[in-house]
């Protein structure tokens, strides 16, 4: 696929995700970690304007000077921006104007993509992978927004993501030894995957299956959310301050657990893999089972023998740079490096992840309390 075809395909995919929304669905921001769909559409376009068109297309005219302030996410190098928690306040520009902005960017990107400049094509590749990350965020943000509606509206009745089941069972044993970790090869990768290096691992066993809803219900029914012994101190405070008693999107109706899904409200499927779990919950469940979460290095060493990709899997590894990691110069250097503190690594991919992002070395990362992504649990034995 040519770079132009790839660009058009990925940009269309973003709009396809939003195609079932009403105008009213584009604007809400019920919590600060969720961004309105309209903001995603504009920000992913601003990325191409700021890092490619303004710098590499001769005589390019910025669409609207205010858009940099409105739709910059976290790039301090670029300038001021609206606060993340206030993205839902942006009622203007309208949804229609944001689509006009996307069309304007796409029209000028067609001209830029005619250039045979390797630096331009490398930045385009980054921009497309960035947009694919926002496609996943769009899907999970849309789910959260619709899940706050007491009518539990359906996004797509044909999506059965929450009902995905395990295809493997049992545990795999790995001997102690030296294992190589990190990206090595052709194709795109993010800078946080670089710095391939060797790690020593003690012998370990890792589950071939993810924890299911039925298994997690045993933890709930055993009083797991009421027993401080299973929780980190921070996790125990989080449970009590937020009155947590089940995974996100679970609702007890007539004494039976239901779950809001992309296909609407459904009874919890006991055989499906549990999802929308925080690191705190994953760690507590492992404690209750007298097991543990794998480190990201154990996960990567084992991944070739595992069935993964249904849920982002919490690891017991803090998000830190690999040896020899170096931030790129300028605003692009803000992409990953500055977030390497107070976050935990997740591995694999989820049902909402673009296929191009489902690689063994991909390092996702979130704060320990976050669970609006399709996150799950894989256990390791001590």
Written overview of the protein:
With 382 residues, the chain is of the alpha+beta class. The chain contains 9 helices and 12 strands. It has a 4-stranded mixed sheet with strand order 10-9-8-11. The chain is globular, with a radius of gyration of 21 Å. The model has no long low-confidence stretch (mean pLDDT 96). This is Ergothioneine biosynthesis protein EgtB.
Would you spell out the secondary-structure blueprint of this structure?
Layout: H1 3-18, H2 37-56, H3 66-71, H4 95-112, H5 118-147, E1 171-174, E2 177-181, E3 197-201, E4 204-207, H6 213-221, H7 233-242, E5 250-253, E6 256-261, E7 264-267, H8 279-288, H9 296-302, E8 312-318, E9 344-348, E10 364-366, E11 375-376, E12 380-381
Parallel strand pairs: 8-11
Antiparallel strand pairs: 1-4, 2-3, 4-12, 5-6, 6-7, 8-9, 9-10
- Overall number of structural domains: 2
Shape: globular
Query: CATH class of the largest domain, please?
Result: Alpha Beta
- Write the CATH homologous superfamily of the largest domain: paralog of FGE (formylglycine-generating enzyme)
Termini gap: 46 Å
Poorly predicted segments: none
Overall average residue pLDDT: 96
- The CATH architecture of the largest domain would be Alpha-Beta Complex
Number of strands: 12
Order of helices and strands: HHHHHEEEEHHEEEHHEEEEE
**In what range is the share of β-strand residues?**
5-15%
Bin the helical content.
25-40%
- Helical segment tally? 9
In the CATH hierarchy, the third-tier topology of the largest domain is known as paralog of FGE (formylglycine-generating enzyme)
User: Which structural class should the secondary elements be placed in?
Assistant: alpha+beta
Most strands sheet: 4 strands, mixed
Protein name: Ergothioneine biosynthesis protein EgtB
InterPro entries: CTDL_fold, EgtB, Sulfatase_Mod_Factor_Kinase, SUMF_dom, SUMF_sf
């Amino acid at each position: 696929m040519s770079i132009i075809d790839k660009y058009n395909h990925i940009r269309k995919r973003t709009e396809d995700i939003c195609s079932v929304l009403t105008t009213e669905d584009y604007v809400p921001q019920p919590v600060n970690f969720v961004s309105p769909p309209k903001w995603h559409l504009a920000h992913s376009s601003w990325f191409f304007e700021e890092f490619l068109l303004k710098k590499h297309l001769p005589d390019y005219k910025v669409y609207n000077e205010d858009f940099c302030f409105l739709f910059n996410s976290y790039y301090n190098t670029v300038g001021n921006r609206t606060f993340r928690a206030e993205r839902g306040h942006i009622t203007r520009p309208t949804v229609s104007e944001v689509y006009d902005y996307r069309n304007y960017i796409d029209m000028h990107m067609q001209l830029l993509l005619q250039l045979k400049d390797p630096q331009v094509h490398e930045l385009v590749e980054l921009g497309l992978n960035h947009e694919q990350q926002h496609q996943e965020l769009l899907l999970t943000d849309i789910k959260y927004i619709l899940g706050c509606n007491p009518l539990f509206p359906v996004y797509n009745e044909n999506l059965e993501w929450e009902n995905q089941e395990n295809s493997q069972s049992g545990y795999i044993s790995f001997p102690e030894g030296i294992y190589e970790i990190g990206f090595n090869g052709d194709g795109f990768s993010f800078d946080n995957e670089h710095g391939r290096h060797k790690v020593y691992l003690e012998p370990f066993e890792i589950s071939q299956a993810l924890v299911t809803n039925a298994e997690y219900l045993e933890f709930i029914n055993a009083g797991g959310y009421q027993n401080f012994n299973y929780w980190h101190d921070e996790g125990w405070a989080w449970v009590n301050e937020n009155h947590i008693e089940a995974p996100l999107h679970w609702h007890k109706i007539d004494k039976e657990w239901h779950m809001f899904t992309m296909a609407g409200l459904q009874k919890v499927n006991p055989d499906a893999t549990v999802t929308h779990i925080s690191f705190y919950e994953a760690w507590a469940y492992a404690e209750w089972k007298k097991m543990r979460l794998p480190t990201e290095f154990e996960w990567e060493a084992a991944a070739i023998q595992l069935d993964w990709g249904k849920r982002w899997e919490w690891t017991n590894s803090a998000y830190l740079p690999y040896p020899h990691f170096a931030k790129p110069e300028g605003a692009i250097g803000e992409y990953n490096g500055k977030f390497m503190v107070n976050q935990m690594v997740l591995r694999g991919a989820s049902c909402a992840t673009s296929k191009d992002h489902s690689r063994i070395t991909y390092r996702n990362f979130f704060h320990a309390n976050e669970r609006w992504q399709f996150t799950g649990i894989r256990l390791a034995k001590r």
